[in-house]
Amino acid sequence: MLPLAKGKARRGVYAAAVSPLDDAGRLDAPKLVAYCQFLLSKAGGCDGVAPLGTTGEGASLEFSDKLSAIDAFAEAGVPADQVILGTGMPSIGDAAFLCQVAVDSGLFNLLVLPPYYYKSPTDDGLYAAFARLIERVGDDRLRLYLYHFPQMSGVPISVPLVRRLKADFGPVIAGLKDSSGAFDQSRAFIEATGGIDGDFDVFPSSEAMLWDGLAIGSAGVISGSTNAFGRIVQAALQAGDGGEEMALVRHARAAVGPFNLMAAMKQVVAWRTGDATWTDLWPPLSPLNTAERVALRAALDDVGVDLAG
After folding, report:
1. Which residue in 65, 86, 185, 190 has the most C-beta neighbors within 10 A?
2. CB 44 within 8 A of CB 14
3. DSSP code at position 42
4. Contact 145, 84 (CB under 8 A)
5. What is the torsional sign of CA 221, 227, 228, 234?
């Protein structure tokens, strides 16, 4: 296994962090940073955080709020190798600008969706888009994690495209988050690039895949439900055998499957902190209703999740 390239995010258990709103319905960037610091603590159980992605409602955020988040993470001194920041936008120019601001602020590891408004682009078109982003940023410190989430973006990232980008841009193409939910898809990305042995870090999006992924060369997981289950997943990682602890991880992941993940994870944080404002979501998403809250609490009790923080 090759060592991590300079500036690259560490491997392990990541939480796709939920995002808090302030009284005006804008991103509360300092509160987000403080929450991510909790996730990175022993109590949170995570090796890294991935804010402003899907679970962080990144597509709903105002552009200026994303800039304020970059400033807040930089000012707080959160270790750069523990943050993979979502910077994907429909416009490659906007995405490149966010990436450039992030890199200039010392945040090098960035999670980037393909430009997702126009559907069915060719691989050549997507290659040109990512190449233009990299050229616009113009900084060898940039570390891009491609974001494959075709159910949401409508624009899949193919295995040949990944191989081509990695061959042409080397360490700048640092890895990929696979949110397809299909383990065979993660396997295909790993086999095509060599996975961690080839310095290409594939992160499946479900902790239920943690041990199967590690066995074939994945880098860990980036999951929305590790907002609730970070300690459980970290215990399974540290156990080193994928046995009883992984059975609990799979049970926990299945327990939150019936709920909207963003609403459920925000509800968990609200219960954990006693701060009901955490349940606020950007439209068009809505908080859990009363019946859903009761069902979620029962599911968490069954798993044995400690909501005391």
Report:
1. 86
2. no
3. T
4. yes
5. positive
118 is annotated as an active-site residue: no
Question: Do 146 and 160 touch, CB atoms closer than 8 A?
Answer: no
Which one from 6, 117, 118, 122 is the annotated catalytic residue?
117
Phi, psi of 37 (to 5 degrees): -65, -35
Q: Which two tokens stand for residue 243?
A: 């046995």
| Overall size of the chain counted in residues | 309
Report the distance separating Cα 51 and Cα 19, nearest Å: 8
| Residue 177 annotated as catalytic | yes
Which CATH number applies to 12-241? 3.20.20.70
Partners of 109 in the beta sheet? 143
- Report residue 25 as tokens: 């319905």
The number of angstroms, rounded, from the C-alpha of 17 to the middle of its chain's C-alpha atoms is 7
Query: CB within 8 A of 64, min separation 6: which ones?
Result: none
Residue 89 tokens, joined: 């936008």
Q: Tens place of pLDDT for every residue, the chain, 309 residues?
A: 455 666 899 999 999 999 999 999 999 999 999 999 999 999 999 999 999 999 999 999 999 999 999 999 999 999 999 999 999 999 999 999 999 999 999 999 999 999 999 999 999 999 999 999 999 999 999 999 999 999 999 999 999 999 999 999 999 999 999 999 999 999 999 999 999 999 999 999 999 999 999 999 999 999 999 999 999 999 999 998 778 899 999 999 999 999 999 999 999 999 999 999 999 999 999 999 999 999 999 999 999 988 865
Choice among 14, 35, 145, 147 that is catalytic: 147
Pick the catalytic residue from 54, 87, 226, 279.
54
N-terminal to C-terminal alpha carbon distance within the chain: 36
Contact 14, 47 (CB under 8 A): yes
- The domain spans of the chain are 12-241
β partners of residue 35: none
Look at residues 76, 16, 9, 20 and name the one whose alpha carbon lies nearest to residue 230. 16
